[in-house]
Amino acid sequence: MGNERLVVIGGDAAGMSAASQARRRRGADDLEIVVVERGRWSSYSACGIPYLVSGAVDGFDALIARSPEEHRKRGIDLRMGVEAEGIDRDRREITVRDLASGRTDRIGFDHLVLAMGAVPIRPPLPGIDAPGVHGVQNLEDARVLIDYLRPDQRRAVVIGGGYIGVEMAEALIRHGLEVTVVDRSAQPMSTLDPDMGALVHEAMEGMGIDVVTETEVVAIEVVDGRASAVLTADGRYPADVVVLGLGVRPNTALARDAGLPLGASGGLSTDLRMRVTADGIWAGGDCVEVLDLVSGRRRHVALGTHANKHGRVIGTNIGGDYATFPGVVGTAVSKVCDLEIGRTGLREKDAAASGFEFVTATIESTGRAGYYPGARSMTVKMIAERITGRVLGVQIVGRDGAAKRIDTAAVALTHRMTAEDMTSLDLGYAPPFSPVWDPILVAARKAAQKVAEGR
Amino acid sequence: MGNERLVVIGGDAAGMSAASQARRRRGADDLEIVVVERGRWSSYSACGIPYLVSGAVDGFDALIARSPEEHRKRGIDLRMGVEAEGIDRDRREITVRDLASGRTDRIGFDHLVLAMGAVPIRPPLPGIDAPGVHGVQNLEDARVLIDYLRPDQRRAVVIGGGYIGVEMAEALIRHGLEVTVVDRSAQPMSTLDPDMGALVHEAMEGMGIDVVTETEVVAIEVVDGRASAVLTADGRYPADVVVLGLGVRPNTALARDAGLPLGASGGLSTDLRMRVTADGIWAGGDCVEVLDLVSGRRRHVALGTHANKHGRVIGTNIGGDYATFPGVVGTAVSKVCDLEIGRTGLREKDAAASGFEFVTATIESTGRAGYYPGARSMTVKMIAERITGRVLGVQIVGRDGAAKRIDTAAVALTHRMTAEDMTSLDLGYAPPFSPVWDPILVAARKAAQKVAEGR
Predict the structure, then answer these.
(1) CA gap B251, B260 in Å, rounded
(2) Positive or negative CA dihedral for A49, A50, A53, A55?
(3) Cα(B162)–Cα(A247) distance, rounded to whole angstroms?
(4) What pLDDT was estimated at residue B455?
(5) Is A122-246 assigned to CATH 3.50.50.60?
(6) C-alpha distance from residue A204 to each of A148, A164, A175, A199, B398 (Å)
(7) Min CA distance, A125 vs chain B (Å)?
(8) Residues A332-450, CATH architecture
(9) pTM
(10) For A345-401, what is each residue's pLDDT tens digit?
(11) CA angle centred on A306, ends A304 and A311, rounded to 5°
């Protein structure tokens, strides 16, 4: 059956979106679709894991957008527990192994979608493989961690203060644990500039989360076969449970072995339509690199929202239509308890590394009219190119309504707006939602003024 | 003193912003600044009045951004209770009357800023001037209304279901009154298309607000010298208090008498720098018309956020720098209790009147990941031009986080994005803040699909 066969490696966001979009456009008699997934879960929200661990989200099923059975009902041959072991580009087939039976097989393809995702960074520390040290990349990790948590545990250490680290810190304090976050950077949330990260640091301490910065972990202490402390150059942090939040890197061993092109970031290189090669090999999600529209460089950004977009673009193209993924501006939002964090574009160090000269403007405002009940402080930092005033990056730390304000800046960056241009933006105003000058506009005014002064 | 004199008519958002910005750039020995304001309040937030009446905001002072004394301390000669009666363009002076003493005077100007604001629409209905019938345009109106409210009153009728009407309906139910909103349109919030207004209607009924549509008020019934009911063609609505929320029109009698140019909308015409004439007459705020960047037409939009921007542009230019106000896309946000409403760009009828052919796409999503606690439904409607796919308007009705999502669309409209372009926007994603496809992107996907199908 099928005039053509589409084979997808990886049954999560990018892979299943590609399969679904292709299926919508081409029926089963026209396109056979096979997806191999080595894990036992497909189409789940990895970003929801901290909230599953915290108990805010009830049950694993909640995070599963579509079960393997649902995909199969739509005519997608989704094979769980099957790992791809090789890609033979000449014979146009992949080698797979069923992890339960050990049986290997070959599957020919006309189109191949590489959606292997990312692998968590796991430094080779003594003790890192001991029980009680937990990654939180997939649902299986989450299950193991949740099973490990016991009411008599008192202390948790999170290694890494990026967004996974701070979200896991929140999850663990909600479990009643005393939480220490250890990070090698000057401040947590190093996707922000250190001055903005310092606001997150201060707020986390206010929530009772101990944040230890500029500190390198050297080993996990293991007692009675279980992790008992995190050892650093500066001291020992007792831990009944240790969580690794050190980020991820693209999972590209298979692609590298097949001689497919990898970029400097380590992710697979694709064209605008997400093609790796012109003869039917595509890639998307956490295993590719993307164009940063602000710096013009390619970088690796592991985010479910991009993976879904890539999948849609790939599936649309394989389906016979046309779609492109032009790139990212680097938007991300996260929270620690009630503190909201948004960022888009370049940090100061990124801007400098790209060769920009720039000014910075930081302002404090509120998310509602100052007189409206519940108005809380919000800090906005804007980075704008010298002379031209082009906005290069925006960072926001605050409460109620802070994080998603970054979207306004993200669209502005997409269109290379200047700070002065931004001061005229027609943003929604009413006292429950914004001061008469939205905080984004206040930051734009200050940045525009600094640009003018520097001319 | 002063080489030049700036005279401002109207001491609210546009006028005082212009004065403040000019003062920042030019000292008192270089520019004398006189502001005449006929009322007793300056620089206050009229948009806060519903929340003052509801009791959410405590006290009149909270709404006053800067008192007359504070302005005077900054070297602005702000004269309260003084009305401008005439503009003599040849002699370059205005005639003013002190409302308390009745004394008239003339003030010469080098620069004149017209910031007279708007006047509320008051149809000549029998009984409209009776006690118990309240406008809510300024702080004096608010004070009279608050003084009129008594615990033994049971019923209120709001005439007009626009944003002032729905905000006042919320304020009055918070006072424990039974509230009826009477509107001549098919649905309340006629700044939305009727299908989206219907969602507001339904939600308001769910809050216990009675909404009577397609109904013309013919008179106010007066008993014992006070308003007792609102009479319509279809029936009588008993009312212990009546609130008028019928919108405003530009206050331009003075300008018209002076032969200054008014546009078709009734507002003063200005150039990009907010100049009415090249020889030093400027205008901003609720008395001007602005360019609608989507339709290319000029229209009157009374919003404090625009008034502040106009004032900044005028003051910057008078101060010797350069600034422009390019126009609006028509963004507005409001709420009724927990229902949030956002809109930007053209409604279907505006698009048709401008000559556009278009498709519409309406989607339902949530403001957070569906599995995240507190996720509530959100409806997004997108209107896009046929063939080109250019987005012409977006409307949002929903709960938590719905209204300010409109800002993303506002920036997109500013840049004439297509629906297909918008599907690639790099918007912030994390489960507490958005589904993996933000509702704006879901609407863009559906609109793009409809555009493609219609080609």
Answers:
(1) 13
(2) negative
(3) 49
(4) 82
(5) yes
(6) 25, 14, 16, 9, 31
(7) 30
(8) 3-Layer(bba) Sandwich (3.50)
(9) 0.96
(10) 999 999 999 999 999 999 999 999 999 999 999 999 999 999 999 999 999 999 989
(11) 95
Neighbouring C-alpha atoms within 13 Å toward the C-beta of A59: 5
The reply to whether ipTM tops 0.90 is yes
Query: Does residue A146 contact residue A135 with C-beta atoms inside 8 Å?
Result: no
Phi, psi angle pair for A398, to nearest 5°: 180, -165
Interface contact B51-A344, CB threshold 8 A: no
pLDDT per residue as tens digits for the range A59-70: 899 999 899 999
Beta strands in A40-142 (DSSP E): 77-80, 82-88, 93-98, 104-108, 111-114, 118-120, 133-134
With beta carbons less than 8 A apart as the criterion, state whether A237 and A218 touch.
no
Residue A1: is its pLDDT beyond 70? no
For residue A106, give the DSSP letter: E
Q: CB-hemisphere CA count at 13 Å for A399?
A: 11
**Rounded distance between C-alpha atoms, residue B241 and residue A3, angstroms:** 74
Q: What is the pLDDT of residues B138-164, one digit of tens each?
A: 999 999 999 999 999 999 999 999 999
| CATH class (in words) of the domain with range A4-45+60-119+249-318 | alpha beta
For B4-119+249-318, CATH number out of 3.50.50.60, 3.90.226.10, 3.30.565.10, 2.130.10.150 equals 3.50.50.60
Distance (Å) from the alpha carbon of A256 to chain B's nearest alpha carbon? 28
Residue A138's Cα: distance from chain center in Å? 13
pLDDT at residue number A210: 98
Where are the CATH 3.50.50.60 domain residues in chain A? 4-45+60-119+249-318, 122-246, 332-450
For residue B269, give the DSSP letter.
P
Interchain pair A48, B321: CB under 8 A: no
Cα nearest neighbour of B52 on chain A: A372
Which of A247, A41, A58 has its CA nearest to residue A146? A58
Contacts of B335 in chain A (CB under 8 A): 430, 432-433
Q: Pick from A43, A47, A404 the residue to mutate for testing the B interface (most B CBs within 10 Å).
A: A404
**Token digits of residue B194:** 């009727």
CATH 3.50.50.60 domain range(s) in chain B: 4-119+249-318, 122-246, 332-450
Distance, in Å, from the CA atom of B160 to the CA atom of B246, rounded to the nearest integer, reads 5
Query: Which among A304, A430, A440 is the nearest to B334, CB-wise?
Result: A430
